[in-house]
Write a structure and sequence with these properties.
CATH topology of the largest domain: Immunoglobulin-like
CATH class of the largest domain: Mainly Beta
Number of helices: 5
Number of strands: 24
Mean pLDDT: 85
Number of domains: 2
Strand content: 25-35%
Radius of gyration: 25 Å
CATH architecture of the largest domain: Sandwich
Structural class: mainly beta
Low-confidence stretches: 1-25, 335-341, 373-377, 448-468
Length: 468
């Protein structure tokens, strides 16, 4: 992706850290040659799952708008090479952010191992400042825990450190720095880790997705996040992508599906799935026993937590999947913008436009008018930013941004087919329609005759004596 490479080069200049570009390693070329190959990826689309060619077998995960890091086997040890470095990440078409990440992306690549694997991770620091790396939620020797100053010296720019431990517990985890944490995590330095069970049949699923929740504060026209923001973020993302840049989760009808979600933002996120009920089957503390699970359609994921949800995708369609905090399904916004619903602004616009030619009235009839204007290309935007609500479907504007995508359930997909199948074609008499004063004789879905209420409710007419 040549444009991203050029942008990264520009980033070094803009950030005043051109020296970081030469901080590859203070080691000799011979020593560097002995390390696992540095593998980078800059594409922002969802990559095919990485099926193991060496080591123990497992069913791989699919990283939403991301990828899994390859490894090498050396004397029975599974070796990885992570490189912390400045990266250019496309948040959505039309906006690129200058972030920090690993191996060309933010978040970094997912690391997949198997319970009992002896793992060795080489971590090279190409950042302009010192760093470390913490294996969030994992049982590791204390000296491998990655807390700078407490369990290890800091990894200085240009240096490479080695972390080595046994992946003792199957589950879903994260990795991130424990050094200048507010800056480095605000810049996107994080990634996912999956330790698969020894037995590939244990809690087996057909499709297994993973992504991280992250948030940024990037002013319109800017490229680099504000690192001191604590609450008023303006970009809410999944794996550093905002809708409509987030890929759909594509599954076969009746697939058993697992979605693993980790939260490294500064607030909680109620993650909601339409059209299906799920159970929370795992946390970063381990698997939830079947006796402790219950059906949900929304699960709240707190700061620093990981949740794995599972369900059978038995309902065809394009189902919304999103955070249920409404301002988290919007893109770049001004927090001080007043509510102007019902306020007539035509005269005001004419007067202000004489002084500020690009002035635009906002929200006279509600914020949805913003997506309508954006869709018609009537809304002038500053450089390198996104409309607050954007994205279109087969019926028009979706009026969403941020933490929103779709679960696309289809029939007849190939086993490893994750490509977007396009809009769902609704069967006859199964879509909402405009009322014109007449109702058809039969307008019920084909399967409605098989649906019975769980509890029969009898409606009793009031007698007039209630409350006496």
């Amino acid at each position: 992706m040549e444009q991203a490479k050029l942008t990264r080069r520009d980033f070094f200049k803009l950030a005043g850290v051109a020296g970081a570009g030469v901080a590859i390693s203070s080691m000799s070329k011979v020593a560097m040659a002995a390390l696992p190959e540095i593998i980078s990826e800059e594409k922002a689309n969802t990559q095919a799952p990485l099926h193991p060619e060496t080591g123990r077998p497992y069913h791989p995960v699919v990283t939403l708008n991301g990828w899994s890091l390859p490894w090498r086997m050396k004397n029975g040890v599974k070796e990885f090479h992570l490189v912390a470095e400045p990266v250019a990440r496309e948040i959505a078409p039309g906006m690129v952010a200058h972030l920090w990440g690993y191996n060309g992306q933010s978040p970094g690549p997912t690391i997949e191992v198997v319970e009992g694997d002896h793992v060795r991770i080489f971590v090279t620091n190409r950042l302009p400042e010192k760093t470390s790396i913490h294996w969030h939620g994992q049982r590791v020797p204390n000296g491998m825990d990655g807390v700078s100053g407490l369990t290890q010296p800091l990894i200085m720019p240009g240096k490479t450190y080695v972390y080595e431990f046994e992946a003792k517990r199957a589950g879903t985890f994260m990795y991130h720095p424990h050094a200048d944490e507010m800056t480095q995590m605000a810049m996107g330095l994080m990634g996912s880790w999956v330790t698969h069970p020894k037995n590939p049949k244990f809690m087996a699923v057909d499709r297994d997705f993973i992504f991280l929740l992250n948030a940024y504060d990037i002013e319109p026209g800017s490229y680099t996040p504000k690192v001191n923001t604590m609450l008023n973020f303006n970009l809410w993302t999944w794996n550093s992508r905002a809708f409509p840049g987030i890929d759909p989760l594509v599954v076969n009808k009746n697939d058993k599906v697992r979605i693993r979600v980790g939260n490294l933002t500064m607030t909680n996120h109620p993650i909601h799935l339409h059209g299906h009920e799920f159970q929370v089957t795992g946390t970063d503390g381990g698997w939830v026993p079947p006796s402790a699970r219950w059906p949900e359609v929304t699960t709240d994921i707190g700061v620093g937590q990981m949740r794995a949800i599972e369900f059978v995708a038995d309902a065809l369609g394009d189902w919304a999947f999103h955070c249920h905090k409404s301002h988290h399904t919007m893109n770049v916004m001004g927090h001080e913008v007043p509510t102007l619903i019902g306020v007539k602004q035509a005269d005001l616009v004419d007067k202000i436009s004489n002084l500020v030619p690009e002035y635009m009235a906002m929200g006279e009839t509600g914020m949805a008018e913003m997506s309508d204007m954006a869709a018609m290309m009537e809304m002038p935007l500053p450089e390198n930013t996104l409309p607050m609500m954007t994205g279109t479907g087969q019926y028009g504007a979706i009026d969403m941004g941020g933490m929103f995508t779709t679960l696309k359930v289809r029939e007849g997909l190939a086993k490893h087919d994750y490509q977007d199948p396009g809009p769902y074609q609704h069967p006859k008499a199964t879509r909402a329609y405009a009322y014109d004063g007449n109702l058809p004789e039969v307008r019920s879905p084909p399967d409605s005759q098989h649906i019975k209420p769980a509890v029969e409710v009898q409606i009793r007419k009031p007698t007039g004596h209630e409350g006496h």
